[in-house]
Amino acid sequence: MPTDACRATLVGAAREVPGPQPLPPSAVQGELPGWLRGALVANGGGDYDGMLHLFDGLASVVRVGLNEGGGGDGDGSKSIATFAQRMLRTQARERKAATGKVAYREFATSPPVDPPGLAGEARALFSQLAQLASGSPQFTDNASVNLIPVEVPAAGGRPLLLAVSETPGASYLVDARTLETVRHAAPDAEADGVPGMLTTAHPARLRGGRELVNFTRTLPFGGMHVYRMASSGRDALKREAVAFIPDRRKMSPTWVHDFAATDDGYAVIVEPPLYMNLASLMIGGDRQRKGGIVPGASDFVFMDWRPEDGVRVAVVPLPAAAAAGEEEEGEGEGAEKAAAAPAIPKQQQQQQKKTLYFLVPQAFFAFHFGNCFLVKADAATGGGPQLCVDVAAYDDPAILNDLRLAPLLAGGRPLGERRGGHGPGGRSGEVSRSRYARLTIPLDRGSTDPSSPAPLAPPVPLTRPDAPDADFAEFPTLNPRFRGRADSRYAYVLNAVRPTNMGNALAKLDLATGESKTWREPGGAPGEPVFVPRGAAEGGTGAEDDGVVLAFVAAPEGGSFVVVLDAREWREVARVRLPAGVPYRFHGGWMPAAAAAAGGGA
Ligand SMILES: [Fe+2]
Predict the structure, then answer these.
(1) CA dihedral 498, 499, 502, 506 (to 10 degrees)
(2) Nearest to 16, CA basis, from 80, 83, 106
(3) What one-character DSSP code corresponds to residue 139?
């Protein structure tokens, strides 16, 4: 179980440290691999004052540079690290700084009504309904969830990071070196014809990261608008509509956090039966719960769970440009690649013209997806083409209530004190259970009717059920050079060594044997694992686990460090103690020094 000091760091305030600020040699314990040159960057909350949920903190971005220069010669003899941490300059932050109050509706936190009481509730309700009717609700611009390397011409080749969250307006460009907020980067829905009030913070990075695929959603009576855009070049960040997926229930859109995609030309959108309750979405479930004027608060923040509906899976064909090429690194520019022949056989292209729909009758919930790969048709056996999608799957969405700040901070206290009667979310003081599992989708058996999907088998666990550490998997990742490949054998996840009410370990999963190995700092809590492969120029063997896993860790005594794990041996080789605590991180990545200098990214 993480200590109180650890939890205080995770939901504390991010102290701003302009940078990159050099750290003293004593900050590095162990031996930092000399070949590891670049920066670990990540996004997350940095101000939880007045907030109710882990997802609500106002955005802060952090960067830890390793062996980047300034004396570092890359041979390991000089282990040099730098640090920077900044708050994102959003409207949500500026208005809160000016008024001292939460200004926008966040995931679970709503602004206080004015005047307090029913008159204020009625005024807020009228305002929200008017905004919904006008199609422009005032959602937050708090871009706290992910950081995507991009390159826009106006920045003169300077490497940038796109900070994003789950509204199109929560989109800001950040200087990848100093972490200064450069500018707001909200898309123009009128110009590009991609409408939508919500989106995902997980654009799929295809073709070596040059192309981003994502979707927005319209509501009510809407659905998901899949689009693609380039991450660099003249048309960087301009969206192009690809497909539309109608909602399962017209008045109750599903909440989908992430999806899977592959360079082979498919996006796979998995829709657990977790439906937004529009009243709760607009007004705030917690405000309803406190006795506001609209009853019927949802059980899961602003969502309702209807397991009887099962999980709908949509396989969306992507245009040929997205399917071009199989080997991306070190190759030519986008125009040449776009003109290359698609990797999909012609008969499969015919099959993939329309979106295919499937239904898993047994409900499960998921935030995140790992590997996704195509198994081509086998003429010898008569087997049709299949898509495999790896997912960190929960039985239900109770994890959304686990991540409320009250139970997170209460630690091991009895359940009755911690949940406050907020619905069926909690069953114990333990963090919900989840498994890393694989969906296998037969592409020749899909339905093109979204209201009549073809049956699909539930995901099959990829780890042995008897392993003591096999019942929590989150933030799955893998060697990026093995993404999209059927022969990928290893995944790395946030893991839980129980008893604990949150992820408190990192695990390496061997998908061939089902075995797993964990690393943890007792009393501490790591965040998302990031795999950095050791390239051939750096003496790498090309083996899938030849590299390191990096993660931010909230320390048991307070404060934070970055842990460096040898991925093959699964042991700690170094840690970098940071000069300021880093609150809970959601997502980020690694920017290699060479790519950063050239204006590229991880
Ligand atoms: Fe996420």
Answers:
(1) -30
(2) 83
(3) B
pLDDT surpasses 90 at 547:
yes
Query: Six-digit token pair at 45?
Result: 């909350």
CA of 586 to the centre of ligand 1 (A): 6
Spatial distance between the Cα atoms of 342 and 325, rounded to a whole number of angstroms: 7
Tokens 């939890």 — which residue?
7
Residue 576 · residue 30 · CB < 8 Å: no
Cα within 13 Å of Cα(185), Cβ side: 28
Note the pLDDT of residue 295: 67
- Sorted by where each begins, the domain ranges of the chain are 4-104+139-273+310-329+358-395+433-598
* pLDDT tens-digit readout, 358-394: 999 999 999 999 999 999 998 888 889 999 999 999 9
Per DSSP, the residues of 216-263 read: EE--SS-EEEEEEEESSSTTBT--EEEEEEE-SSTTSPBP----EEET
pTM: 0.89
How many angstroms separate the alpha carbon of residue 59 from the centre of ligand 1? 14
CA of 537 to the centre of ligand 1 (A): 32
Cα(475) to centroid(ligand 1), Å: 7
Hey, which CATH number is domain 4-104+139-273+310-329+358-395+433-598, 3.40.50, 1.10.10, 2.130.10, 1.20.120? 2.130.10
Q: What's the pLDDT tens digit per position in 168-203?
A: 999 999 999 999 999 999 898 888 889 998 999 999
DSSP state of 179: -
How far is the centre of ligand 1, averaged over its atoms, from the C-alpha of 172 (Å)? Answer: 17
The SS3 assignment for 200 reads coil
Q: Which two tokens stand for residue 20?
A: 């990159």
CB atoms closer than 10 angstroms to residue 136: 12
SS3 153: helix
Is the bond preceding 522 in cis, omega lying within 30 degrees of 0? no
Task: Summarize pLDDT for 115-167 with one digit per residue, the tens.
Answer: 777 777 777 777 777 766 666 666 789 999 999 988 887 777 788 999 999 99
